[in-house]
Amino acid sequence: MGVRMDLASDNPAASRRTWSGYAGLRVDRALELAVAFVLITGLGGLLATIAGEFHAPQLLLGALLLSGVYAYRTRERWRWPGPAPRWRHVIALLVLALFFRVPAYHYVMGGQDEGVYVNVAHYINHTGGIRVYDRVKQQLENTPYLDLYAADNRVSPDEYLGGVYTRDMKNSKLEFQFYDQFQVWMALFDGLFGAAFGVYALTFFALLSIVFFYRLTLLLTGSYQASLAAGILLTLNPLHVFFSKFPVTEVPALCFSLIGFTLLAALWSAPAAQRISRWRVLSVLAFLCLFTTRISGFMYVPFLIGAAIVSLLADGDAARRATVQRWAAGVAVAYLISVVYGLTWAHAYSHDIYSLSFEPRLGEHWKWLVALIAIGGLLIWGAAALAARSRIRERVMRPVSALLAWLPPFAVLAALALGAIMIYRLGWTQRYQGDPGLDIQWRLAGRGWAGASASSLWTLIVYLGPPLVLAFLFLIFKRNRDPRIGLLRWFVAGFWVFALVMQWVIPYSPYYARYLLSELVPYLILLVVYEWGSMRPGLLRKGMSLVVAFSIVYAGALSATQIGKSENDGAYAALARLTSRIDPGDLILLSMSGQNGITQSELKTPLLYTFHRQVVTVDRPNLANVNYIAELNSLYDDVYLISPAPQPPDGFVLMDSVRFKVWAFKPSHSFPHKLIPMRDVVLHLYRLDHLRVPAGTAISLAAWTDFLRSGWSPPESWGIWSLGTEAVLDFDTGFLPDQGHGLLIDLRANVFVTASHPVQRIEVSIDGKSVAHYKVAYPQTSLEMRIPVSQATLDSAKQFQIEFALPDAVSPRSLGMSADARQIALGLVSARFEPRTPVVPGNAQNL
After folding, report:
1. Of 252, 452, 708, 714, which residue is 20 to 30 A from 164 by alpha carbon distance?
2. Percent helix, strand, coil in the chain (nearest 5)?
3. Cα torsion through 81, 83, 85, 86, rounded to 10
């Protein structure tokens, strides 16, 4: 059934009203198509990323094509119930929102959630997937340096970096923390507009969340005044403003939940003849996107299943009951899909979050108890379905209705009282003295108001304003027979309890205040605005109007303090300058030594996943281990060192220096308003020019490849085979130990002799002058050559060559031993350089 609009009219006022209504319907149509595009892009991009085939232009074009098909197939029926939104309201909200939300923060420093999200997004765009490996570890397999590398390059036994887990030490697999829906969106913006624009995916979701908040309020209230007020309150809310620029998942999660709830409200509100089944599908897919954005989807499922059970018992519309059951079943399946996805693609993170969420409350057998709770919920759902088909439905619903009406306000007051007690104990008693988190880490215990202000209750008051919180505590007691508002009251009350009792401490703001954003803050605003909009004219409504007006001004004033300030400003530019000299085939050594508070994860994460360079962390002893550095040097074109140390290590030369001054909002128990330097240190970039061989230390010639002139096979883990009948080593005297009377070079080697090829002859020369001759006969297979180099040779030139004549070189294939066709004879394993002692006349021991 189409919507027919007659735009022709002789009455100008009627024409304006008709056009306004038509434009409003067009806004609804645009919103539905936006939903289709967002869901297709998000879920399609996630599937492509899992498959390792993410390509931003193709994803966008494919999503636009499928969205076009959707628009064509659904062109006949797209009328949403209730008054249509006004386009001028939508535009005004979007412009106001952008005023407070640009620029977004391109947060690249690692170690914290926001940096992980951004770096993973860059990695997805660069590689097309989320499969990640420790490439350096793979290259150091079967070398004596693997343990040295592992000791320096793991922040813990289970973590490669903060937010990057060690999935499997045997095959070097790593695993990114978090679910990937949000990162896919940032990768899309990254691939389309450039690396610095990936975070504007967050801006996109922020704008979309505001529009759907406005639309959901209009669906529930039917009031343009209430819906516009709700939209402005969310637009100006300082918490929403900050996290619309700060790249974490709360705003995208809020956007998906608003889409899902808006479509559910439309489905519930529409007359039977106008309910459209695709709204149910779109709502379920929106919740699937929510569940693949944040792992906290298990907190939504009880409310949504509960809504389905109440619908069975209380709703007299049989067709709507059936629709809601199918919707709830779809949401449950979507959540199970997200669980499988998480355990497969974010296994360590999922396991940690589920354990931390359930084990402290349910004990070590929490998995079985969670399963039993889930089974119990399904049994109750099934019993409600049976009751709905019999006359006992009304008898069951009478006591249930009273419980549903009064339990939310009781829970809100109980949580408020319990939260206040815990806050008092934290600030003014010794109850939490010695607590690892509250006392040792955060230093909140027993500190009076300084401790009490680090609470979810105080943070909620700061970001909403005292009048709005007090209005909520008053209005939660107001009875309402609208089942849609019944679900909203339960939802808000549930997350109020979670915030004040279970997540009751906010160590500092604004960072940890984000846990209030995706559910409690916006839906509390929605509940208050709904109750205000439904009030009859009178003193109470006037008072509530003052509360709403004050809250708008209050929110705008707090949000204005963020304008012109940028979190993490300075980090990307500094690292971009340092890496501009470094090619992808080079290696960066990172030596921070804990100076200036910079951690390994903060720099190494962006160097690896935003700038796509190979990085090895080295402590000072390992940086001085020339064999280890030589091994790393043999694997890459050039080796660089980033360090705050003002003097380069031996063998390195200075290339550049940059001040790494990174700004951040000052952690506090208030709203974000003051920027401070989070990191301020000069980073120096050094390039490895040469390595001096230590005297008396055996070196692997497979690692010191600069000494290999000609006639050598590719290095192997144990050493290097000669190739052909001649091989040459070329030594730069600047790389060798200090000499005074010449050098003695001790070469240890394997020799290729077998029963069928029993002899290898080896003649050694220095710059064409024969110095030694060796003959190795089977079964001997090893050789130690002691080659003297006179001081005259060392003084005559900066370089000298050692030549090996190998007339008996032969291939294993010619002997029928293997398919190896190389002509081999001498396999150098190590070299050691000893200064020669002067000859004392008459002392034979010096000869």
Report:
1. 252
2. 55, 15, 30
3. 160
Which amino acid would we find at residue 340?
A: V
Burial degree of 224 (CB within 10 A; 0-12, 13-18, 19+): middle
**Three-state DSSP class for 724?**
coil
- Smallest CA-to-CA distance from 209 within 264, 261, 254 is with 254
Q: State the CB neighbour count (10 A cutoff) for residue 571.
A: 26
Q: How many residues does the chain have?
A: 847
How many CB atoms are closer than 10 A to CB 183? 31
**What pLDDT is recorded for position 334?**
96
Report the DSSP beta bridge partners of residue 642: 590, 685
CA angle 230, 259, 459 (to 5 degrees): 50
Cis bond upstream, residue 807 (ω within 30): no
The pair of three-digit structure tokens given for residue 100, joined into one six-digit string:
């407070």
Which positions of the chain have pLDDT values less than 70?
1-25, 77-78, 168-170, 391-398, 400, 402, 593-596, 739-740, 838-847
54-103 per-position pLDDT tens digit: 999 999 999 999 999 999 998 876 678 889 899 999 999 999 999 999 99
CB-CB contact of 672 with 563 (8 Å): no
| Secondary structure class of 500 (helix, strand, coil) | helix
For residue 4, the model assigns a pLDDT of: 33
Question: If we measure between CA atoms, which residue out of 156, 160, 162 comes closest to residue 137?
Answer: 160
Q: Which segments of 561-619 does DSSP mark as H helices, in order?
A: 571-579, 600-609
The tokens of 737 are what?
Answer: 């130990």
φ and ψ of 162, to 5 deg: -60, 115
Our CA dihedral for 152, 157, 158, 160, rounded to 10 degrees, sits at: 0
Task: Determine the 3-state secondary structure of 823 from DSSP.
Answer: coil
Task: Pick the closest to residue 567 from 183, 192, 202, 180 (CA basis).
Answer: 202
Rounded Cα distance between 56 and 779, Å, is 62
* Residue-by-residue DSSP string for 119-155: HHHHHHHHHSS--EE-HHHHHTTTSTTHHHHHHHS-S
User: Is it true that the peptide bond before 779 is cis, omega within 30 degrees of 0?
Assistant: yes
d(CA 41, CA 489): 32
Residue 510: cis peptide before it, omega within 30 degrees of 0: yes
pLDDT value at residue 406: 84
Beta bridge partners of 831: 699, 747
The neighbour count for residue 303, using CB atoms within 10 Å, is: 15
739 DSSP assignment: -
List of E strands, 689-781: 708-710, 720-721, 726-732, 743-751, 759-766, 769-777
pLDDT recorded at residue 280: 94
Residues 6+ apart with CB under 8 A from 201: 182, 185, 186, 188, 189
Exposure string for 577-593, b = 16+ CB within 10 A, e = fewer:
ebbeebeeebbbbbbbe
The residue written with tokens 């009273």 in the block is 402
- Residue 546 burial (10 A CB sphere; 0-12, 13-18, 19+): exposed
The backbone torsions φ and ψ at residue 727, rounded to the nearest 5 degrees and listed phi first, read: -145, 145
Please give the pLDDT value at position 396. 65
Rounded Cα distance between 272 and 2, Å, is 16
